[in-house]
């Protein structure tokens, strides 16, 4: 057996180093060269962001956690075919999403491969679509790096009222990719000095769940419960529905044959969105805006109205704003109550950070109150929750005067949220204590039906 020093590979590499023939990775990557590489690899546009950029400060920790060597990021976009996304036929639209996602992943892989051959360490920031980090379900974000903030910092677009990045040329008909690079780049992009969003509110009109409000508010739960019905949490709800069914007949009473087949298609060929109408109707972007400018009425009839007129099932959480919204605005669509599909609460910090995602403004319209929460036991946390003027604020620690103070054992509170324990028994055992009107806790619960 040879020693380490006698190993042929070791000897070859040491000989190259002594002769000065070993390739050296550049200390700085030329931005123009890198841009051409990305475009040749399949990207339709690209921008670069330094890890120290203040525009991604909120994402820095997650980026470094994903790749400690990161010094810069490559953000790139691939265009989708607009007409495929605009059709009411979900099969056509979803194949476009799937294939465009494959292109993003293939492009990222090619770029990383070329950089690797040059001795530059780089890593795909996160695949588009799935798989995701399933072990994080219910405790943290399942994706590795957030593409949207990086794309905005790179100057590839701005967030529209519908919460999608709008590229100045391609509009929102894009998918995003991010590559983390361990070498600095010679020049970086800057955020756009204007927002391509036209504030036309067509996304508001087209959304079947009312998730997008004219004033800019966004109901995450409404969007997630319907649009992502066949993803993650919605799939879990379907499995539990099947498990609870007493017979095949009982199952078919709860789940239609078409719903079962739709779920099978998602499992077989890739998870399908129930809607992406906000993208479909968006006229922003230089390549997109022409027909809208030429004939707004015609644009509405050709693109917006077919989506609004589509007869379909809209999935809503019970007692949510979406459940009230759909019959008023889309009486021809079928409303079906389902579990929201959001993760069960496993931590107090998750409960507090998740509140803005499930807050229902319509259910809070008559509530103006300040709540102090003091959690004890496994998690010792203090927080203030203010609900006023149909808005929610969650503050670390106690702030202001409380209309209702709640002191609770953290495990008991989480079991209460998961409906594994009743409030009366918890109050009787003094594992949950209140100071103030109990009606305020009931009003609080109405704002978070999930």
Automatic annotation (TrEMBL):
This protein's record includes keyword Disulfide bond: no
Pfam families linked to this entry: Fer4, SCP2
Positions of the 4Fe-4S ferredoxin-type domain: 188-217
Domain of life: Bacteria
GO molecular function terms attached to this record: iron-sulfur cluster binding; metal ion binding
Keywords tagged on the record: Iron, Iron-sulfur, Metal-binding
UniProt cross-references to SUPFAM superfamilies, sorted A to Z: alpha-helical ferredoxin (SSF46548), SCP-like (SSF55718)
Protein's name in the database: 4Fe-4S binding protein
Organism annotation: Methylovirgula ligni
